[in-house]
Amino acid sequence: MSDYRYIARCSYGNDSIAMLQMLHEYGLKDVAVVYSDTGWASDAWKVRVEQGKEWVRSLGWEAVRLTSIGFEASVRNHTAAGMFPTRLVKFCTQELKVRPFLKWVTEADPDHRALVCVGVRRAESAARSSHPAFMPERDNGRHVWHPMIDFSDADRDGMIEKTPFPILPHRSDECAICINSNRADLRRASPEAIAAVAALEADVGRPMFNPAKYAGAEGIGEVKRWADSERGKYRPLTGVVPAYPLLDAMLDAEPATCEDNWCGL
């Protein structure tokens, strides 16, 4: 029989921290807080995760860290298919988060006793606006609960203010550079993260980001130059002037991470 009554899927972003505080205020016991390591997190995020795990233990819960093959290995494995992950083909989410979690939860909760908790909120985006509060028999037969489903940003931030963590101006950095990165995300990307993408692009022989969706920018160096430009002002070094001003503007408003219930929380 499982020792867990509740299993919280957690990235240690704003929504995750707020959800953990909410569960703590409910007085829940026998909680496992599970972080899936993508192998692609920023150095600063790794520090935050360790701080989060210490806080979780101080609440009397178990902090679990799951490993995966890592983003770089996942991309190399798909090189023959000619792809990095995309918004539509998110094999990164499946390989780095979903599969490791489902494998772990099957072993950790063999009798399906635990309730899985996730920090999804309808106010986050149009894509999540109709998300259900409760999803029966989802994670290998376990019920999934979204306790903050109707929380506004202010409601969430109020929860975070009760914790040792600051409110972040961005979503989680469990991937230092996400396949869904927009201009704001790329502007704050570290030189180390940019270099890691450049090395991976050189290794597999193709760019991480589709040039047609980033105003013609090909390769992470050019994508970063696009990000650092003002909307509609970027011109590729090739001298070709792309006719993408509308798309270029739209990218700023797009979400920073995947809009499923596994990423960016």
Q: How is this structure best described in words?
A:
The chain is of the alpha/beta class and 265 residues long. 37% of the residues lie in helices and 8% in strands. It contains nine helices and six strands. It has a six-stranded mixed sheet with strand order 3-2-1-4-6-5, with helices on both faces. Strand 2, helix 2 and strand 3 form a beta-alpha-beta unit. The longest helix is centred in the middle third of the chain and has 18 residues. The chain is globular and about 60 Å long. About 2% of the residues have low confidence.
Keywords:
single chain; 265 residues; alpha/beta; 6-stranded mixed beta sheet; 9 helices; 8% strand
Q: Which secondary structure elements does this structure contain, and how are they paired or packed?
A:
Blueprint: E1 6-9, H1 14-25, E2 31-36, H2 43-58, E3 62-66, H3 71-77, H4 91-108, E4 115-117, E5 134-135, E6 144-145, H5 153-160, H6 183-187, H7 191-204, H8 220-228, H9 245-253
Parallel strand pairs: 1-2, 1-4, 2-3, 4-6
Antiparallel strand pairs: 5-6
Helix pairs in contact: 1-5
